[in-house]
């Protein structure tokens, strides 16, 4: 039989492997945070279609419904990397191409110019800014940082934001979301509604609670 010395050596190797894995995971998180990348967490999403609006106050409903309505009105606009609701000009498009690279803007210029422009975080930033006059954050990283205390507990409700890796969508009720999806031409990309689908595996936050906190400070 192999003695205690052999077992100790095996245990030591296992502990070293575990320590290396923990260190690597910690390192990955630090690097991700440095570059504004939030690693995907375990989903907290539950949906109860029949009672989605039941626990929302009249005041909050007004803000949420306005934000949802604004987002839905932007359907069919193309996705524009880096934009937060500005009207696109040729000069601005040239600036974006120079800064981010031409591959981020693959469509014809006419598909962008003269129209309001949003990326994914830009859309939800803009609709909540318009609906509440509160800035929830420009980027997905800023939004998740601002909303960290307001992670959804229990059922998803309209107006909640669902984050996946470097992307955000808005839940609008009845099992649907609205999003500014990607750089491909609408309807493959651009702003559109769709069933929640695999976004139900994301992590949801409640911006209306953050908005109320900011308003209470003033």
TrEMBL record:
EC number(s) given by UniProt: 3.4.-.-
Pfam families: NLPC_P60
Keywords attached to this entry: Hydrolase, Protease, Thiol protease
InterPro entries in UniProt: NLP_P60_dom (IPR000064), Papain-like_cys_pep_sf (IPR038765), PG_Endopeptidase_C40 (IPR051794)
Residue span, NlpC/P60 domain: 61-209
Domain of life: Bacteria
PROSITE patterns: NLPC_P60
GO molecular function terms noted in the UniProt entry: cysteine-type peptidase activity
Signal peptide as annotated in the record: none
One GO BP: proteolysis
Similarity-based family: Belongs to the peptidase C40 family.
Official protein name in the record: Murein DD-endopeptidase MepH
Organism: Intestinibacter bartlettii
